[in-house]
Amino acid sequence: MNEVIRERLAAFRSDQDLPGLDDAQLFEVFAAYCVLHRFHEDKFEPELHRTGGGNDLGVDAWGIVVNGDLFHDFDGVKHAVEASRELNVVVIVVQAKTSGSYEGKVVADLADNLRQICARPPISYSASPEVVELHDALGLVYDNQHKLTEHSPRLEVRYVHCGQEPNEDLLEKCRSAEASLDELGRFQSVRFAAVGWRELDRLFKRTLRKVKVHFDWPSRTAIPVMEGVKEAWMGTIPASVIVESLLVDEGGSIRKFLFEDNLREFLGAQNEVNDGIALTLADPAKRRRFAVLNNGITVLAEHFDTSGVECHMSDFQIVNGCQTGHVLFENRDKLTDDVHVKLIVIETENSEIAGDITVATNRQTEIAPEDLRADQQIHKDIEAFFQTRKDLYYERRSGQYEARSVTMTRVIRQNQLVQAYASVFRGHVHEASRTAKLRRDPALRIFHPETHAIAYYTAAATWYQVEWLFRNNRVAAKWRPVRFMLMAAVVARFSNGEKLPASPAKATRYCEALLQKIWDRDEVERLVSLMVGRLERMTDAESSKQRLSDLARTRGFTERFLKEAAGVE
């Protein structure tokens, strides 16, 4: 293995907390991380995309990006396809070998296998469950041809190795592989490329950089200097520039992570307001007046520099304009040169000022009071409690730990915390993947001011311990769809079935007792192993023969499992 890559792998192993993987397995995860990041710039867990085991047909990792979201399983792709009116799809396949030289035969064999995987009929070769999921997920995409955008779907294949960059002979083999896969008629474009150690190192360095954009903005005006604001600008800008320069990544997908600090998620194209925005863009006369008919977009940036009309911006969030941004993206084919949008860019000096601006700009639109408290005290309390323990970190604001020396797998994002908390303390294991629904349900009281910070930390610790077992191959990857069931079962066993008390003092005692057991990894692993054995018997006896991911979303199955898990010894 190349020495530069060996050093990168050592740091990557520590950062991703993957001590249980051997060098070959770790390289597969590393290659997946570097390649997938090019098509999905948001944070993701690369080990989820590794196929592992035998019969992988040369596919060491895969991912499918649907409308800016990255998926690693059939269930995720299915949900995205069913929920979307329009589909922008990029399929990424990675084969990774630690060899110090490339092999032309690998390219030909992988192309032959992909012809099987990407074709309509069932795969005639023996294939692992993860590869079958890829085949079935592609079938879902093909079944929804009417939703696909003009240049979708795309297939991106990378053969990653530790040798030199490809010579003309290998390049020719890659071109032949592209032609072979293009003959299937399944993709609007196919790219098959070999990645040597220098290109791999370059891709890895890209993962360390913040998103940087540059664009021309001649019609901007400086806003007078004010306390807490380094500088601010406002003006109008062509909507096409907003979409092409800010909103869209290299894969052609919307950068959804730019809206993480927004107080409201995208409400969908069928929402009355968003439908009105789309109708305005569809009307040749009205769209020329878009800048005065729409509230525009407000951006908070860590760094914003200008030189004449040219602007450079990095580490930024769209804090107001989530609906406008998404509708502009979905209607980008209608954005003629005369469609302009109002833009405000603010370079702040501290996060508290940023929070104030986020709330203030959203008070001008119809938004629920509870959403206006995205920076509310409960989030600060949770963050502060995590800091007292110094082993997990709550990401209250997007990207706040990226520049710090922390193990990123110990950083718990808001959606992950919602999933863990709803599963272990609110009995909604079967709906854990539906984070937006969980947050909107008032009965669950997630992030309610009267809930307890220590309970969120306890849920996060359970998440971390169970995820660690999967990341390090202590539990087979095929059981990952039921990980929330396993988390809930572990907490139920450790608490002897007792529920989280409402009283702050009792809740603290309850959680402290739980945490002593949860941080005992050997005991957690022992329990999970026993529960997986029980799961295996239950699924084998299941008459419906549903996918495991479908069973995990069924209340009846999850309740039966939790009852069974209560008696394992």
Automatic annotation (TrEMBL):
Pfam family, one: AIPR
Record organism: Glycomyces artemisiae
Name of the protein described by the UniProt record: AIPR protein
Superkingdom per UniProt: Bacteria
Stretches assigned to the Abortive phage infection protein C-terminal domain: 259-536
